[in-house]
Design brief:
This protein is an all-beta fold. 0% of the residues lie in helices and 52% in strands. The protein has no helices and eleven strands. The relative contact order is 0.31.
């Protein structure tokens, strides 16, 4: 099993940046591809980005491509989401999730992920 804890959310003005972190514990971190999702009030949980277990493969949703960057540090059991040029439409709860290696690529669907964090709120003011 893997336990995931997100941090780094907060309030930021439009055009600003935030860096989210997600720290894992439990099972071997490099056994998992790691993804980021978000959920705005009244909307479905949306896939944002995934990074392969080694850190060499990434895949992004069109809505964030060019603005968000996913990365990971396997030594620190942590995955990051660098978010630039934030817009009010980016306001949501952001979740990290872990998908076992070998369960497909890219993993852009919620049901491909076995473990989820509790989420961190990101609010972008206009």
């Amino acid at each position: 099993q893997v336990q995931l804890v997100e941090s780094g959310g907060g309030l930021v003005q439009a055009g600003g940046s935030l860096r989210l972190s997600c720290t894992a514990s439990g099972d071997t971190f490099s056994s998992y591809n790691m993804g980021w999702f978000r959920q705005a009030p009244g909307k479905e949980r949306e896939f944002l980005a995934v990074i392969g277990w080694s850190g060499y493969g990434t895949y992004y949703a069109d809505s964030v491509k060019g603005r968000f960057t996913i990365s990971r540090d396997n030594r620190k059991y942590t995955v990051f989401l660098q978010m630039n040029s934030l817009e009010p439409e980016d306001t949501a709860v952001y979740y990290c999730a872990a998908a076992p290696r070998g369960s497909g690529w890219p993993q852009g669907s919620r049901n491909q992920y076995a473990y989820w964090g509790q989420g961190t709120q990101v609010t972008v003011s206009s």
